[in-house]
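From the shared-data thread, chain only:
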Amino acid sequence: MKKILLQIFAILIVCPGVAQVKIFPGGSTSIGSLNTPASSFKLHVRGNSVFTDSVFTGNSAAFIRGHNANSAADTPDYTWWGNDQTGFFHPDRDIIGFSTGATERMRLTNLGNLLIGGFYDGGYRTAITSDEDLSALSTATTFSFDNGYAHASYVNRERTKNWVVVYNDSERFFVYGNGNVWSYSNYYYSDSVLKENIVPLSSALSKILLLRGVQYNFKAEVLANPQDSTTVISSTPPPLQLGLIAEETANVLPQVVATNDKGIMGINYTAIVPVLIEAIKEQQLAIDSLKIQLQDCCNKSVLPGGSGNRIIQGTIPPENSSINTARLDQNTPNPFHLQTKISYYLPETTSDARLIVFDMQGILKRSFELTTKGESSLIINGGEFPPGMYLYSLLVDGNEINTYRMILTK
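Structure, as tokens:
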């Protein structure tokens, strides 16, 4: 039997019309060809090749195409039976392409750069091009601990730019290796729908007065690892800075200070802005109050009736007028928080009287009808208006008697 098989194999080798496999002296073998393989090849296969573990190809099997030229995305060299437009191809010298569904998805260039979703090699080690249906880059982590790196960018020079955003051929955002951030503007989430337990700030001015502004230099960089021959330490001294000391600030405004996992403290300077705003408002109220006291002092000596802090002096009516003896006084206390009292006097001949309150823009806020003749008063509760400065006037029979300022604090 063995002798018969050897005779059949010899016939396949010798007969040109029948031969599909030929073994040459030295062991070189041709499959699908009678041509002698090149001297450097031990095996030469003419045509396509499929590799299976049985006589059936099934749904998928390793499949290699035979090409005499560069291949393309729809005819990759190394692919799979039943899915032969997905695989690795060779579009040009020193370039490897990767395709799925006859479309190139990724390319490794002759410069060693990886291109994903595009073919232009702009000199970046990795370039990702995305269309409108897909995000260009997304990373995800499943750490079971804190302070891990979802992404880390190690640089060796302080002026190396990281996370550069280029729009209209202009750099719009980037981070230098030394940590300096450059951008056109920054927005912080502040919508009311994201917040709860909203409480107005109080005693803002006293807090600001406790802060100490300083100028300083950050310490010069030193090489962390003496064996590091790559990192370049700048010889330029750190620039002069203006700011606060975190440890001191934490004693006054702990809400704006945080400590990182290395034990280093930092300040959210943006969070100090609301405190500054409220401090200025408190200071302005104090200034306005002093102005009122000063004006009251001056008016008592020069205005009729000696009623004091008049900012709009009404026309002095004729002696027989019903408003001849009408009077409006300054509210007390002023400034006030919970409530304040406004005293006034209406003569018996008064037909119509009301006290109106309007803001500093002249917008009417409240109108109180006054019906009690003689000496009387009106109580205004602090909760009726937002904190701020207001004007109030007494109108008697269509005539303005006087107008005063009142200040409502928090």
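Residues 1-12, 301-323 have pLDDT under 50 and may be disordered.
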